[in-house]
Design a protein that fits this description.
Blueprint: H1 5-14, E1 22-25, H2 28-40, E2 49-53, E3 66-69, H3 72-82, E4 86-87, E5 97-98, E6 102-106, E7 112-121, E8 126-132, H4 139-145, E9 151-154, H5 163-172, H6 177-196, E10 199-209, E11 215-217, E12 221-224, H7 233-236, H8 246-253, E13 257-260, E14 265-269, H9 272-284, E15 291-294, H10 301-312, E16 319-326, H11 331-345, E17 351-357, H12 360-370, E18 375-378, H13 381-394
Parallel strand pairs: 14-16, 16-17, 17-18
Antiparallel strand pairs: 1-6, 2-3, 2-6, 4-5, 7-8, 7-10, 8-9, 10-11, 10-12, 13-15
């Protein structure tokens, strides 16, 4: 689950990670009031603040999602220009994401921009600190073109960051003296947040050095592990469903793992590993998967029908590949759910079905007896992938 920037910064402040003076607004009038409050808290004259669109995506600065206000009226106007619209960035779809809140934040002078993050290295099965002297808007490009510019410090999840680890990061960032001490304190705060809130990623980009020699988190990104939210009902309440893809949201509510992709071949699969392999083989055969969908190992007929409805709700779909290896899930249940859904929704697009495993013969019998021209059976995955790509290209 993603948090908005202002929510993440509230968590930062709770563990004493320095952030700018800021407050959130949901109306233009509230933005004007927030500006005046922030101005009264600082001696800077004139007071200048950023008006930052709150969406679950990066790249706001380059997409017109961060504006400047030098007066209460300008803060009102800037908020009005953002609130209620959809912002498209390099990290969103072409439809963009809706802006329902803006963060008004004191504008800071910057001496240096750094990058700091804490996440999981899944290959090494350990937490890892990522750091770079080249923080800012182009950090993704830095990671792609100059990987050596990103420092990696792994540590034991039970032991936490050691004093040696906490010393190497500031050194690698070129920080010394008071700045190095501040960096170590921030790292300790990040780890405390990460561990206590069951996070999967905490990112500060940029972590700035101010002219008066202070480190400040100018931006904040926090991702929480959905599987651990039952332990954090207070955090679960922070979920903003307006930022989620409608089909992904619908799927999550009925216990189906669904992620929309860019292709035109719908995929209904049981098991995350098999679903990824299915997506891969479709690409290898020259097609494009429209989704990752794991219906789960213990789904019933109704669950399969729900999954099929979610796939068909995507207007781009030109063909569907059903790839089921029945273990706990029975192939005849899959077949019956498939028949129920296609009949109810009057499906016209071609469907390739590959069934293997428990009750596979009964499942194939049900599909054969249905005698529907848009249903094509295949026994091997490679055969099924080739067929579905061919059918998608024809339709």
């Amino acid at each position: 689950m993603k948090l908005h920037e202002y929510q993440a910064k509230e968590l930062f402040a709770s563990v004493k990670i320095p952030v700018c003076r800021a407050a959130v607004a949901t109306t233009p009038e509230q933005a004007a009031s927030v500006y005046e409050t922030l101005r009264d808290q600082t001696s800077t004259d004139p007071f200048v603040c950023n008006v930052k669109a709150q969406i679950h995506a990066g790249g706001r600065g380059k997409s017109g999602g961060i504006l400047i206000a030098r007066s209460a009226q300008e803060a009102c106007d800037q908020a009005e220009s953002l609130l209620g619209r959809r912002l498209v960035t390099k990290q969103t779809s072409s439809e963009g994401l809706p802006i329902s809140a803006v963060l008004l934040e004191e504008r800071m002078e910057i001496t240096q921009e750094l990058y700091l993050a804490l996440t999981i290295d899944r290959f090494q099965a350990s937490p890892v600190i990522l750091a770079s002297r080249r923080g800012g808007m182009d950090i993704e490009e830095v990671a792609a073109t100059d990987p050596s510019a990103i420092l990696h410090e792994r540590f034991d999840i039970f032991e936490g960051p050691t004093p040696a680890t906490l010393a190497r990061i500031p050194s690698g960032l070129g920080l010394s003296g008071a700045l190095a001490d501040q960096c170590r304190d921030i790292l300790c705060g990040l780890w405390k947040l990460y561990e206590s809130h069951d996070a999967s990623l905490i990112e500060v980009n940029p972590l700035i050095v101010s002219p008066d020699g202070k480190l400040i988190a100018l931006d904040a990104k926090v991702l929480l592990d959905d599987n651990a939210l039952f332990r954090h009902p207070d955090l679960a309440k922070l979920r903003d469903e307006s930022q989620e893809h409608p089909l992904e949201l619908k799927a999550s509510r009925i216990g189906i793992s669904y992620v929309g992709l860019e292709g035109d071949i719908g995929c209904l699969v049981n098991g995350a590993g098999l679903a990824m392999a299915t997506n891969d083989i479709i690409k290898l055969c020259g097609g494009g998967p429209a989704n990752f969908l794991d219906v789960g190992g213990g789904a019933n007929v109704e669950q399969v029908a729900h999954a099929f409805r979610i796939i068909l709700a995507d207007s781009r779909i030109r063909a569907i590949l059903v790839n089921i290896f029945g273990g706990i899930m029975r192939c005849d249940w899959i077949a019956q759910g498939l028949l129920n859904a296609t009949q109810e929704l009057q499906v016209r697009i071609p469907i390739v079905v590959r069934l293997q495993g428990t009750n596979v013969e009964e499942g194939r019998r049900l599909l054969t007896q249905a005698q529907r021209l848009n249903l094509v059976s295949a026994e091997e995955l490679s055969e099924a992938a080739k067929k579905v790509v061919e059918l998608a290209q024809r339709s």
